[in-house]
């Protein structure tokens, strides 16, 4: 009797679980994506251990799907959840909780590590949980690809967190704890955006049992619920690695303070005066040389006078001799 009840409880619990079936792009069904463009787990069981790599993309997280969904930045995506197959009960109504959507650059591994950025979230709006809404919307949870998202291949991860047993942490009682239903979808995004997701969220490190959005009493709370993880990424153009690269070039121009060359030109300028001094001294020499000949030329004027005075003396002496002879002759006579 006890085993029968246990089996029934297990069956009803399994019946309550969920898995992702496919994706819609702007209202167009992309078909059954399980093991096609979704890294689909082997069953719809939850993950509860925050240290497990399965927390990120589920049990087959490292099994790359063969295809990608094509979508453009700004498109509306609808991730469709079901219990096992399309148009079934989706998930049990008792599994209330938030639905959170993340993005990371495409990777072929299991998605672990600080690579994730939150792009959408829906928790408790005061009257309804996000799980209530997907049940009313045929299993679909809509969100918009950020219009500024840079083109490329990505993993989009969406998770349902069921809080019907999360009043106790899994680490304290593995039979209880929050139930995580993660699923990773391969999407190739087109467009001309330049925003690169940059939150660097690591599920195995940043989700903790101290988080009030993970250890949470669904049946006794004040009507407010803090969704775990960071704020939704603003996705502004150039906000992530692009802004930094554009800043990186600036340091390259800064090194142009190798205006060390400037001192070099100034040094030569100082040596320029030296040659100019040499030129001046050269000019001075010729000037003095010209002056000296001029001084020598001055004495040439008295030189002619000296000979003229000598001639006059000779003429006078000759006259005096003649007159002396004349006087002697007259005496003899």
Automatic annotation (TrEMBL):
Catalysed reactions, semicolon-separated: [(1->4)-beta-D-glucosyl]n+m + reduced acceptor + O2 = 4-dehydro-beta-D-glucosyl-[(1->4)-beta-D-glucosyl]n-1 + [(1->4)-beta-D-glucosyl]m + acceptor + H2O
Biased composition (Low complexity): 241-251, 267-300
Basic residues: bias regions: 313-333
One GO MF term attached to the UniProt entry: hydrolase activity
Signal peptide stretch: 1-16
InterPro entries tied to this protein: AA9 (IPR049892), AA9_LPMO (IPR005103)
Location of the Auxiliary Activity family 9 catalytic domain: 17-220
Known EC number: 1.14.99.56
Key words, A-Z: Carbohydrate metabolism, Cellulose degradation, Copper, Disulfide bond, Hydrolase, Polysaccharide degradation, Secreted, Signal
Segments crossing the lipid bilayer: none
Cofactor(s), names only, from the UniProt record: Cu(2+)
Renumbered residue ranges of the record's region Disordered: 230-333
GO cellular component annotations of the record: extracellular region
This protein's record includes keyword ATP-binding: no
Primary site of residence: secreted
Family: Belongs to the polysaccharide monooxygenase AA9 family.
Name of protein: lytic cellulose monooxygenase (C4-dehydrogenating)
Originating species: Emericellopsis atlantica
């Amino acid at each position: 009797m006890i085993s029968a009840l246990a089996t029934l409880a297990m069956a009803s619990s399994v019946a309550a679980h969920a898995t992702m079936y496919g994706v819609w792009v702007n209202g167009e069904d992309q078909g059954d994506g399980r093991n096609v463009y979704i890294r689909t787990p082997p069953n719809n069981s939850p993950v509860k251990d925050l240290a497990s790599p399965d927390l990120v993309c589920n049990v087959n997280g490292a099994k790359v799907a063969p295809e990608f969904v094509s979508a453009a930045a700004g498109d509306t995506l609808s991730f469709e959840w079901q219990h096992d197959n399309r148009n079934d009960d989706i998930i049990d109504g008792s599994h209330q909780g938030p639905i959170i959507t993340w993005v990371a650059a495409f990777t072929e591994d299991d998605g672990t590590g600080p690579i994730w950025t939150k792009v959408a979230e829906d928790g408790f709006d005061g009257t309804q949980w996000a799980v209530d809404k997907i049940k009313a919307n045929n299993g679909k949870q809509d969100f918009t690809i950020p219009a500024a998202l840079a083109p490329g291949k990505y993993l989009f991860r969406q998770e349902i967190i069921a809080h019907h047993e999360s009043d106790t942490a899994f680490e304290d009682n593995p039979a209880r704890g929050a139930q995580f239903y993660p699923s990773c979808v391969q999407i190739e995004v087109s467009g001309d955006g330049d925003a690169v997701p940059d939150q660097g969220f690591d599920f195995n490190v940043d989700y903790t049992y101290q988080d009030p959005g993970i250890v949470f009493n669904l049946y006794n709370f004040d009507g407010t619920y803090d969704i775990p993880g960071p704020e939704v990424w603003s996705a502004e153009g150039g906000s992530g690695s692009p802004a930094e690269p554009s800043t990186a070039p600036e340091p390259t121009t800064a090194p142009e303070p190798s205006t060390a060359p400037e001192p070099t030109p100034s040094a030569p300028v100082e040596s320029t005066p030296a040659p100019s001094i040499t030129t001046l001294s050269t000019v001075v020499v010729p000037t003095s040389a010209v002056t000296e000949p001029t001084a020598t030329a001055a004495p040439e004027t008295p030189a002619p006078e000296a000979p003229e005075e000598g001639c006059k003396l000779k003429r006078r002496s000759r006259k005096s001799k003649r007159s002396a002879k004349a006087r002697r002759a007259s005496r003899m006579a």
